[in-house]
């Protein structure tokens, strides 16, 4: 059976990047700046406070809970399959802190 990527943890990085922890144990680093530059639905993420403080995981995907109530219909989320395929595997940044 083919692996279906599922995000289990999301941590904001520097310069509008996200560390996505997947259920297969990999950590992948996604650059969100190109999405923010598009504006539209991603425009609220240009506010670094929103980007860093509202990040979460909803439905196995990196998401930003804009209203703070975990409403799946009022969040910005990223396709975990695309993120898994297109983002490079990196070392866990939290291990360096421990």
Describe this structure in words.
A hairpin with a 2-residue loop joins strand 4 and strand 5. The model has no long low-confidence stretch (mean pLDDT 95). This protein is α+β, with helices and mostly antiparallel strands and 98 residues long. The protein starts with 6 loop residues before the first strand and ends in a 12-residue tail after the last helix. The chain contains three helices and six strands; from the N terminus they run βββααβββα. It has one domain (7-86): NE0471 N-terminal domain-like (2-Layer Sandwich), CATH 3.30.2020.
Features of this protein?
3-stranded antiparallel sheet; NE0471 N-terminal domain-like; alpha+beta; 3 helices
Strand fraction equals 25-35%
What is the CATH domain class? Answer: Alpha Beta
Please tally the β strands and state the result. 6
Put simply, the count of helices is 3
Strand order of the largest sheet: 1-2-3
What is the CA-atom radius of gyration, in angstroms?
13 Å
Distance between the termini: 35 Å
> Which CATH architecture?
2-Layer Sandwich
Which overall shape is indicated by the principal axes computed on the Cα atoms? globular
Estimate the helix proportion, in percent: 10-25%
Structural class determined from secondary elements: alpha+beta
Give the gist of this structure.
With 98 residues, the chain is α+β, with helices and mostly antiparallel strands.
Topology:
Blueprint: E1 7-12, E2 17-22, E3 27-31, H1 33-38, H2 48-53, E4 55-58, E5 61-65, E6 75-77, H3 80-86
Antiparallel strand pairs: 1-2, 2-3, 4-5, 5-6
């Amino acid at each position: 059976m083919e692996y279906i990527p599922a995000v289990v943890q999301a941590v904001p990085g520097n310069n509008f990047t996200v560390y996505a922890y997947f259920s297969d144990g990999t950590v992948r680093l996604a650059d969100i700046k190109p999405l923010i530059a598009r504006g539209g639905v991603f425009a609220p993420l240009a506010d670094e406070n929103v980007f860093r403080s509202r990040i979460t995981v909803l439905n196995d995907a990196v998401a930003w809970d804009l209203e703070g109530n975990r409403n799946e219909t009022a969040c910005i989320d990223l396709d975990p399959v695309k993120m898994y395929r297109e983002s490079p595997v990196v070392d866990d940044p939290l291990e360096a802190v421990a």
